[in-house]
Each structure stands twice: as C-alpha cells, then as structure tokens.
Specification:
heterotrimer; A alpha/beta (122); B alpha/beta (100); C alpha/beta (130); A: 122 residues; alpha/beta; five-stranded parallel sheet; 5 helices; 5 strands; 30% helix; 17% strand; C: 130 residues; 36% helix; globular
Chain lengths: 122, 100, 130
Amino acid sequence: MSTPNKSFLLVSRSGPYGSAQAREALDIALAGAAFNQTIDILFMDDGVLQLLPDQDPTGINQKNLAKTLPMLKLYDVANIYAEQHSLAVRGLLGETLVLDCKVIDSGAAGRLIAAADMVLGG
Amino acid sequence: MTLHIVNKSPHATNALASCLRVIQPGESLLFIEDGVYAALATAEAGAAIVAAPDRVQFYALQTDVAARGLVNRLNVAVNVIDYAGFVELTETHQPIQSWY
Amino acid sequence: MNYTIAIYGAPCSSQAPDTAYNFVQALLARGHGVYRLFFYMDGVQNASTLATPPQDEVNIPQRWAELIREHQLDAVVCVAAALRRGLLDEGEASRHEKPASNVTEPFTISGLGQLVEAGIESDRLITFGP
C-alpha cells in the first residue's frame, strides 16, 4: 500500500436523491479510508442540502443519505466544510445540520481548493 | 494554483457562477463543452468575466467553440486553445477543479 | 507527468467521454503517462461492449478499448457503479446469476479505492464530469 502524503478535497455540489451523484460522491470519501487517505469535503451549491435534518426518502424508495453522512466521522475524514453563501441562499445559515461543518466564505473555499493536491468532483 | 474547468452553459446551471465566486487572483478558467457559451461577446457574459478577480486568465477549447458556431462571437478576453494547450494548462496548474 | 483521468459522463447523455478521449490522446502526444483511467458514476457506460451506435457515429466504448490496448493503459470501471447500471463482466454475471455480461478486457472492474489509490500515485487528477 502506498504512503499517503497528499491532501485530497471532495467538492460535493449536488442535492440528495434527484440523482445518484451525491451518494456516489460520498462513497469516494468513504473509499479513502481504505487507503488511509484523508479526504476533506466541501459542501457547496445544492450539496449543502444533503445536510438537512428530517430527510425521509422512504416514499421515493431511496436510502436516507442523512443517515450515511455521519459515518464520515467514523472514518478518517479530517475536515468537513460548507460554503456560507450556499447555506445562506437556501435559508440554512445557523440551522442545525446532520454534520458539524466548518462554515467558510467563498474566498476561503477558493483557497481551500487551491491548497489541495487533488480535487475530486461529485 | 487551481485550474478551473467549466463545462456547462451559464444559462443552464450555476457552475460558472459558483466557480467565479471562489476563483482566486491569478488562477485560470477553461471553458469546455457547453461551458464555451460563457465566452460569448455579450454584455451579460462579458460582465461576469470583467467582474472576475485580477489576473484570472480565461481560455476556451477551440473544437467546442467551432462546433457551436462561436468562432467570430467570442469575448476578446478569452484565449482560444487546442487540446495541446489544454494539457499545457494542466501541467502548470494544480489542483484541477471541474465544475459540472 | 503521470495523470489519472476520472470519467463521470456516459456516451449519448454527455460530451465528457469524447472530451476525455481527446485529452488523453493529447496527453500521450506530449509525452505524459496515464496512470489510470477511472470510469465512475454514469461514466461506467463507456465500458459497454454492447453499445451499437449507427455506423456513421462514433462507437465510444470501442474507441476507448482501442486506445487502451494500443497504449496498454490501466482502465478501471467502478464495480458498485457498474453493477447498479447493468455493466457486468463474466465473473460478476455468474456471481449474480445474470444471463449476460458486457464488460471485457481491456477494461477491469474494481473498487472505488482504485480512484483514491490512483490519486495518491499520480501527479495530476482531472475529472470529466457529466
């Protein structure tokens, strides 16, 4: 197994359920654990909607993404960020979310991306 | 220094708007696929480019520009490059963030 | 430099497979190496041996297979994404008792960890989104 010495950032920008994108992006972060590779996550745009409490997708025959997200804390996902602007325009600023996120402004999000060695989309 | 790649029309999704919100001075933005519609020489698209931070360089992929009939309709601030130029941008930038 | 190319778009519903293909050709022409092609999300459709477009249209899976063979590239299809979408090699087809398979060499079906591992080992990682 290789020695991880790179910083990875996953930028998750899709809402849950409308497509498989949000869930399959989350799976990338969980896969990092198998390689002892820390993958930070930045939620922005509709991606922040994954963090809403009270999700109940039983009526649309899908698994509850909000139940899987806290698994990130069990794995070695070091830092979880949410972009302030994305939260604000969706009325979620200051709300209790299913994951504790560091809320950062857009400039900080850009610097976070720039500081990563590898950026994964999702 | 991040290379940003946008492949969606600014009229269809917020990919470009989100990219422009986080892009840092001196970084580069490449338009590919439907992303090249953002390089049109219109007031609206031009304003987004003018509002970008200092020293942001804009590029558009030639084959996507030509395919869509935009060769004579591009904003002069956008550099048209071929695939070799695309590869060159990835040599000189890291990481690469795709907005789709 | 060594590149990993992640392809998330499917033929027909996305231009990403064509853009990624042209990019890989340009990379190789400039003397770079491809550490891995990783097909994920709807991008797993790029590996279907059953794609049968009309003769005057490009057969994207076939074109990938030719490029992969010619340059002996490592081309991995994510197993979870593939099974969900009905992309199976012989092993998976018999394991799940399915009547057919549609993924063969030069594509390999493997886990999502192969994307992370490729990122660790490569100089550059570029995603072609849907």
